[in-house]
Write a structure and sequence with these properties.
It contains 16 helices and 5 strands. It is of the alpha/beta class. It folds into 2 domains: about 160 residues, Rossmann fold, CATH 3.40.50.300; about 120 residues, Zinc Finger, Delta Prime, domain 3 (Up-down Bundle). The protein has a 5-stranded parallel β-sheet, sandwiched between helices.
């Protein structure tokens, strides 16, 4: 339904289900919304809170929006100034959400609503709550106060305790395909339209690098970010070019050492390399499989021509293992050397 949760793109089934729950007063008392940064988690949480407290919720008008966006409650919820919609995130300079912050947040849940029927508590970066904080939250999830809804937003659900997950309704935000993402980004940003016209390859690289996430694509339109994306793709192409078995080890070693030394940046580049390898494997299977790294089928065909299917799969597995190792806090310099040595060992 196009008139439900209109501030959020896509996610049609989720929007319909939750808007119907708001109308019928059957919203779950706790939701866990999972997705990458920029995928609309906060927007969805705000739409849910606004819908439940919309002053025009029961108005029967053809084409009426939900939330209406024009009543006093909706306007103030959207502006972040509504007393019965509360937000908790990391304090400045802190890497986690601690138990003390959570306890203060929890105590407020037992107070009566100030202006609305329902109180909402939205916890951003819920996967960064300490175990003690999660356990403090668990107590209120087990016996939730009446007319209170708790919404957890996170990017990595595996960092949420299983006891928390079992007491929440899980929602995964939707990622977009290339064409749909392109349309949404163009609609939201004049800069996107200008860039596509002046440098279609750079614009295409942004869309592919965003992983189907609108917010991420919009952030990448910043001039400094677009240059970084170009450099990232150059690293990937140099790495692919060094993979043929006949290439000297020095070339492979140099390409590997040229990869970023910062953990998160390296992880992004390795994911790009893995996507490029996936494209090359897919091209051996069918010409109809659309690339997810290369900007076109033609660019894909120009790359990796000297690599057979076995070689591509071997390197793909090595890169996948390296991505997993990054999350285990391995020493990055050692990891980069290990990648080159492991690939060379497959000759």
């Amino acid at each position: 339904m196009n008139n439900r949760f209109t501030r959020l793109f896509g996610n049609d089934k989720t929007k319909l289900r939750l808007s119907e729950a708001a109308i019928s007063n059957t919203l779950p008392h706790a939701l866990l919304i999972v997705g990458p940064a920029g995928s609309g988690k906060h927007t969805l949480a705000t739409e849910i809170a606004a819908a439940a407290n919309c002053q025009n919720l029961g108005v029967k008008l053809d084409g009426a929006k939900l939330p209406c966006g024009i009543c006093n409650n909706c306007k103030r919820i959207y502006s972040g100034s509504f007393p019965d919609v509360n937000l908790l995130g990391r304090s400045s300079g802190k890497a986690t959400i601690g138990v003390e912050e959570l306890r203060d947040f929890r105590e407020d849940m037992f107070l009566s609503a100030t202006e609305a029927k329902f109180k909402f508590y939205i916890i951003e970066d819920a996967d960064l709550m300490t175990p003690a904080a999660q356990n403090a939250l668990l107590k209120v999830l087990e016996e939730p106060p009446k007319l209170v809804h708790i919404i957890l937003l996170c990017t990595e659900a595996d960092k949420i305790l299983s006891t928390i997950k079992s007491r929440t309704q899980y929602i995964q935000t939707e990622l977009f395909g290339y064409d749909e993402l392109r349309a949404h980004v163009r609609a939201l940003s004049e800069k996107a339209t200008i860039l596509e016209r002046s440098d279609p390859d750079k614009f295409g690289a942004i869309l592919l690098s965003s992983g189907g996430v609108i917010g991420r694509a919009l952030d990448m339109l910043d001039d400094g970010r677009t240059d970084a994306i170009t450099q990232r793709r150059e690293c990937v192409m140099a790495f692919i070019d060094a993979l043929p078995k006949r290439a000297p080890f020095s070339k492979l070693y140099s390409a590997t050492q040229a990869l970023p030394s910062k953990r998160e940046e390296l992880k992004c580049v390795l994911e790009d390399i893995r996507n490029a390898l996936r494209d090359l494997v897919a091209s051996r299977v069918s010409d109809d499989i659309a690339p997810i790294f290369f900007l076109s089928v033609e660019e894909r065909e120009r790359s990796g021509g000297a690599l057979n299917q076995k070689r591509l799969i071997e390197v793909y597995d090595i890169i996948t293992s390296a991505i997993e190792d990054i999350d285990k806090n391995v020493v990055i310099s050692t990891l980069l050397t290990d990648i080159a040595v492991r690939i060379k060992g497959k000759v």
